[in-house]
Amino acid sequence: MSLLQIDKLSLAIGGVQILHDVSLRLEAGQILGVIGESGSGKSMTAFAVTQLLPVGATCRGRVLLQGQDVLAQTEAQMCQLRGRVVSMVFQEPMTALNPLHPIGQQVAETIMVHENISRSAAMARAAQALTRAELPPERFPMGRYPHELSGGQRQRVVIAMAIALRPSLLIADEPTTALDVTTQAEILALLRRLVQEDGMGLMLISHDLAVVADMADQIVIMRQGEVVEQGPAAQLFSGLRHPYSQALLAASGHVPARPHRGQLGAPLLEVQRATRRYAGPRRGLWGRAPGFEAVRDVSFCLRRGESLGLVGESGCGKSTLTRAILGLDALQSGSIAFDGQPVWAGGSPARAVRRRMQVVFQDPYGSFNPRWKVARLVAEPFHLLDQPPTGAARRAAVNEALHSVGLTAADGDKYIHEFSGGQRQRIAIARALIIKPDLIILDEAVSALDVSVRAQVLDLLADLSGRFGLSYLFISHDLGVVRAITDRVLVMRAGQIIEEGPTEQVFASPTHPYTKELIAAAPVLPAYAKEIAQ
Amino acid sequence: MLQFFLKRLMALVLTLVVASGVIFLCLEIVPGDPALYMLGLNAQEDTLAALRAELGLDMGPLARYWAWVSGMVVGDFGISYTYRTPVAEMVAERLKVSLPLAVYALTLSTAIAFPAGIWAASRRGRGADIAVMGVTQLGVAIPNFWFAMLMVLVFAIQLRWFNAGGFAGWEAGVGPALKSLTLPAIALALPQASILARVMRSALLESLNEDYVRTARAKGLSRGQALWRHALRNALIPVLTIIGLQFAFLMAGAIIIENVFYLPGLGRLVFQAISARDLIVVESVVMLLVFAVVVVNFLVDIAYALVDPRLRGQV
C-alpha cells in the first residue's frame, strides 16, 4: 500500500475544470517532486489531498492516504487527519504565521488540537519540534513573535508546526521560492533530513526544475491540470518524452543568443564611493538609534552597450542602490554620474539624466495602474521630456514601442488585466523603451515569471540590446539568469561590493568565500539534465 | 510597552493643550458681548463695565485663557454667565445622564454588532449573512430620531412599558434611572451597531482570507476554531477604531435623542448655552468633550498595542 495514491483525480471549481484525471503515487520515506508552471494545478492537487479547497470545489476520483479515501471523509474526520497524518508547508513564510501569537504557542497548538495534553507538556514538545527544525529555544525563545524573525526562520517555525506530530505525509508547496539561495539550500537540507529521520513521505511542489531534480526520488511534471510525464527522477530526465517537458527543461537552462560586441563604449554610468545611510529608529523622546548604512562605499562603472549584473541576497542593498541610481533618493556621500552628468543635482534628480534611463520592476501585477489603458501606461515616461509628442506622433511612438516587444498596436486599447504575466512584463519593457533610453535597469524583472516565459523575455532583452544599443543593469537574486544575460557581474553583500569581474570568470572561479557559498547554494540541474537542455 | 504608554500619554497632553487654545480662540472671535446679552440692550454703560469686570471679560485674552485653563485643572470651570452657578456643577449634573447613556448605548451596540458580524462572516453568502447585511443596511439608513419616535409610540404609548421621556434621576435608584435611559440608548445604539457589525464582518472576512488561517486549518483546526483563535483577534484593529469614534460621537452627538426623550444631557446644555451666548459654559463643555475624545483615543491606542505585539515597539 502506498502512502499516497491519487487515482484519476478531477477537480472543478465553480464549473471550471482545474484538474483532469491526475494520478500519482508516493511511498513512505520518499520524495515526490511535482513540477509545473503557474496554473498547472500542482497546488490544487496538494489542497485536494488535505481537502482545503476553495469554496465551490468538487472532486472526482480517489485520493488514498494510507489506504483511506480522503474524498469520502467528513470535514470532522479531515480535521483529525490534518496536522497529524498530513501536514503542509507553504510558500510565503512572511504571512503563513499568525502575527499576534508567539511562535512557541503556534507550534504547541498543533499538538493541543490533536492530543489531550496540558499546555506545559505541549510547549515542551513544541520546543523539541523547533529544535528539530534548527530553531532551538535557547537561541530563539518561544515567546518571540513572527515579526521578530527572518523569512528563513519563519519557514522553520512553519516546518516545526508541520512535523510536531511526526506526520506520515508532508506537503511542501514552493517552500523556498520566497527565500534567498543560501537559506533555500538550508531549508531543503532540513526537509531532506526530516524525511530520512521520520521516514515520512514528502510531496515537494516547485516551479524550479533544479530544486526538485536535486531532491526528488520521483518526479511528476504537470501542465494545465494534467500530468504530462512522471517517473523516477534519474530516468525521467534522461528520457523526457513529452514535448512540453522537453521545452520546460530547455527553458530552465536557456541562454539567450546575445550579439557579440568587440569593443565596449565609453563609461555610461559611474558610481563613485556611494554611501546611503538610513536614520535609525527613534529612541526615547529626541534621541535616535544609530543609523544603518544600506549602501557603503560602492564604486563601479557600466560602459555603453554593456550588460552588467548585480547579485546579492535580500537586504544586501541592491534596491537602495537602484533607487539612488534612479535619483529617487539622495546619497549621503559619494557620487553617481550618468554620461558625465550627476544624477542628483541641486537637491533634486536631474530630468535630463533621468530621461535617459528607465526601470523595469519585478511585479508584473502591481507596477501598473489598473484603470489606465496600455497606450497611456506605455506613454507615461513622456512626462520626462520637455516637449512630449502629442496626437498621432504620440500614438505612433506607443505603437512602435509595443511592436518592438512583440505586441500589436491594438493591444494599446486594452487594460492591463487582459494580459498574462509575461505580456505585462513586455509592456513594462515597452514603457521603458518609449523614450529611447541608453540604460535600462532591470530590477528582478524576470523573477516572477514562469521558466518558459522567462526564456522568451530574456531573448527579447538580448534582441533589444542588439537593436537599440541598450545597456542593462540587471539586478537579481537568481544566479542562473544573471549568468545567462550579463557580461560582467558585481556581487553585493551587506551594502558592499565584494567581488566583481567578467561573469563567466566569477561563476567559474569565484574568489570571495561568500561568492563561493552563493554559487554552491544555488540549485543546479544534474549534469545529464543540463546536457539534454542544451 | 511602558515607553509606548508614556509616549501616547504625552501625545494626549499635547493634544489637550492645543485643543484648549483652538477652542478659546474660536470663541474669542465669535461676535457678541456676553455682558450686553445678559443685561439687555438698554443697559447702562457703567453697569456693563461692572459686569464685565465681574466676569473677568476686561482682562487681556492671554490672562483670560490662563485663568480658564488653570481653573479647569483644579476643577473650577468658572461661573455660568446666565445661571450664575458654577459651570462645574452644571456639567457634572448633565454628565450623570450623558456618560451613562453613552456607555449604555456603546455596550448595546457592541453586544449586538460582535455576534452579528461574526455570524455573518462565518456564513458568508448564505442566508444569515444576507439577513445581517440587509438589516444593517436598514439600520444605517434609518435616522435614529425617527426610530426613537417609533419606539416611543410602541413601547411608551401603546404598551406603556417605559416612560415617553424624562430622566428619573439616580436618586430614585439604579433600576428606574437605567429604565429611563433604555429607549434612548437603543435608539442611539442601532445605527452604531449596524455600522460596527458591517465593519466586523468585512474585517473578519479579510483576516479569514489570510495565509495564517490556512496554516491553522492545515494544523487540523476546524473552520470555527480557526475563526475564533486566529482570525478574530486580527480583525479587531479596525473594529476598535470604529468603537473609539462611536463613543466620541455618542458623548456629544446625542443632542437630538436627548431632545426627543427630554433628557437633561450635555448636548442640550451646550445647545442652550450657545443660544444664550453663555460662552464659559460652551467653552467648558466643548473642552470636556475634547477631553473625552482624546482619552478614548488614548485607550484605543493602548488597546491596539494589547492586541498587536508589532505595535508595542513603535510610537
How many individual helices of chain A?
Answer: 19
CATH top level of the largest domain in chain B is Mainly Alpha
The CATH homology group name of the largest domain in chain B: MetI-like
Low-pLDDT residue spans of chain A:
none
Unreliable stretches of chain B: none
The geometry of chain B reads as globular
Compute the CA-based radius of gyration of chain A: 25 Å
Secondary-structure element series of chain B: HHHHHHHHHHHHHH
**Average pLDDT of chain A, to the nearest integer?**
88
Shape of chain A: globular
Strand content of chain B: under 5%
Percent helix of chain B, as a range, is over 70%
Largest interface: A-B, 33 and 25 residues
**Biggest β-sheet strands, sense, barrel of chain A:** 6 strands, mixed
Strand content of chain A: 25-35%
Number of helices of chain B: 14
Distance between the termini of chain B: 10 Å
- Overall number of domains of chain B: 2
Indicate the structural class of chain B. Answer: mainly alpha
Q: Please bin the fraction of helical residues of chain A.
A: 25-40%
Question: Could you name the CATH homologous superfamily of the domain at 4-252 in chain A?
Answer: P-loop containing nucleotide triphosphate hydrolases
How would you characterize the overall build of this protein?
Chain A has 534 residues and is an alpha/beta fold. Chain A has a domain at 4-252: P-loop containing nucleotide triphosphate hydrolases (Rossmann fold). Helices cover 35% and strands 26% of the residues of chain A. Chain A contains 19 helices and 24 strands. In chain A, the strands form 6 sheets. A 6-stranded mixed sheet of chain A has the order 6-7-8-3-9-10, sandwiched between helices. Chain A has a 6-stranded mixed sheet with strand order 20-21-22-15-23-24, with helices on both faces. In chain A, strands 2-1-4-5 form a 4-stranded antiparallel sheet, with helices on one face. In chain A, strand 18 and strand 19 form a beta hairpin. In chain A, helix 13 packs across helix 14 (421-433). The longest helix of chain A is centred in the middle third of the chain and has 18 residues, at 181-198. The radius of gyration of chain A is 25 Å and the shape is globular. Helix content of chain B is 78%, strand content 0%. In chain B, helix 7 crosses helix 8 (174-208). Chain B has helices spanning 2-29, 34-39, 45-55, 61-73, 87-122, 127-141, 144-158, 174-208, 211-219, 223-252, 255-260, 266-275, 279-307, 309-312. Chain B has 14 helices and no strands. The termini of chain B are close together. The model of chain B has no long low-confidence stretch (mean pLDDT 85). Chain B has 315 residues and is an all-alpha fold. Chain B folds into 2 domains: 2-73, no CATH class; 90-312, Orthogonal Bundle (MetI-like fold). The A-B interface holds A 50, 52, 75-76, 79-84, 87-88, 90, 92, 95-101, 109-110, 113-114, 145, 147, 158, 161-162, 282, 284-285 and B 3, 10, 210-212, 214-223, 225, 229-230, 233-234, 307-310, 315.
